[in-house]
Amino acid sequence: MRKIFFFLSILVVTSCAQQHCPFGIPVKMKNLTGLDGCGWVLELSDGSRMEPINMNDFEIKLVEGKKIYVTYEDFPAASICMVGKIVKITTVCE
């Protein structure tokens, strides 16, 4: 009985962890701090980029080329960097 309970509890925990970001889109982290006015951007699979305004709101290690999943909403603002659309990240999953 203990083995069954243990197995079911592991199953519940792992399935909940996978549901944390079910609608997230895959992106790759890019460090563009060498360009004027740029910082960390997110690159989509089609090569287009997004400039997040709130990456520091999440406890995520910023690593060049790291693949993560995000949900976001468009944010009406202008950028000095001008490499992609400005977004506000709502969810980050590693």
State the secondary-structure class: alpha+beta
Q: How many separate domains make up the residues?
A: 1
The biggest beta sheet reads: 5 strands, mixed, barrel
CATH class categorisation? Mainly Beta
What name is given to the CATH topology? OB fold (Dihydrolipoamide Acetyltransferase, E2P)
Question: What is the spatial order of strands in the main beta sheet?
Answer: 1-2-3-5-4
The arrangement of helices and strands along the chain is: HEEEEE
Shape: globular
Number of helices: 1
Described by its quaternary structure, the protein is single chain
Number of strands: 5
Work out the strand percent: 35-45%
Mean pLDDT: 84
Rg (C-alpha, Å): 17 Å
Which architecture per CATH? Beta Barrel
CATH superfamily: NigD-like N-terminal OB domain
Distance between the termini: 34 Å
Q: Flag low-confidence runs.
A: 5-19
Share of helix, binned: 10-25%
Short description:
The chain has one helix at 2-18, and strands at 25-31, 40-44, 49-52, 67-74, 85-93.
Write up what this structure looks like.
The chain has one domain (21-93): OB fold (Dihydrolipoamide Acetyltransferase, E2P). It is 18% helix and 35% strand. It has one helix at 2-18, and strands at 25-31, 40-44, 49-52, 67-74, 85-93. A 5-stranded mixed β-barrel has the order 1-2-3-5-4. The chain is globular.
Helix-strand blueprint:
Layout: H1 2-18, E1 25-31, E2 40-44, E3 49-52, E4 67-74, E5 85-93
Parallel strand pairs: 3-5
Antiparallel strand pairs: 1-2, 1-4, 2-3, 4-5
What key attributes describe this structure?
94 residues, alpha+beta, OB fold (Dihydrolipoamide Acetyltransferase, E2P), 1 helix, 5 strands
